[in-house]
Amino acid sequence: MFIPDYFKNDDLGAKLSLMQENPFAYFITPAGDRVMFTPLPAVVEETSGQVTIYAHMAAMNEHSNHIEGSLMTVVFMGPHHYISPRWYVDPRSVPTWNYALVIATGKTELLDRAGTLSLLKRLSDIFDPDWSALEKEKEGYYQKMISQIVAFSVKCTSLEGKFKLSQNHPVEDRKRVVAALETSDHDGTLMADLMKSIVL
Hints:
By secondary structure, the protein is an alpha+beta fold. About 30% of the residues lie in helices and about 35% in strands. The chain has a seven-stranded antiparallel sheet.
């Protein structure tokens, strides 16, 4: 992916925050002359600088046959929003779109049954702790469903961050963009908050 230096983000903390706050990611795997693509919820963990992504998909998904040992790319899309040239001090510019994303690449490894159960429990703990507290995973129906999914990890060897947040414009323009975004819509306020934390 083309990433100009002024949009490149090498801050591991910022990249992890984006990934963990936007955990519904796009998992992409080469398969001969094709590319397999599946959107999935992910668990992202970091230990001593090593980032590992965990996810699962339906065993009936053809993509699941191309996971083991593959080089997988995972795209985490963060806030994004239209930016009007009307918001700049000098409006002689062009419309654009601000966005932030992280592109992770790494080798995949299938999880065994115990690892799969652990992952499902972590997903429930994160996204639905009240349901997780019911411990439904101990019931026979839940246990039977395990054979119908394929769980895996991606040990990241590359973690690229592209945060296009008007860094190629003067600070005064960025302030005006943030002010406009704050009064726009939900996505706009998310972008404004991200810009305030990184480029102001």
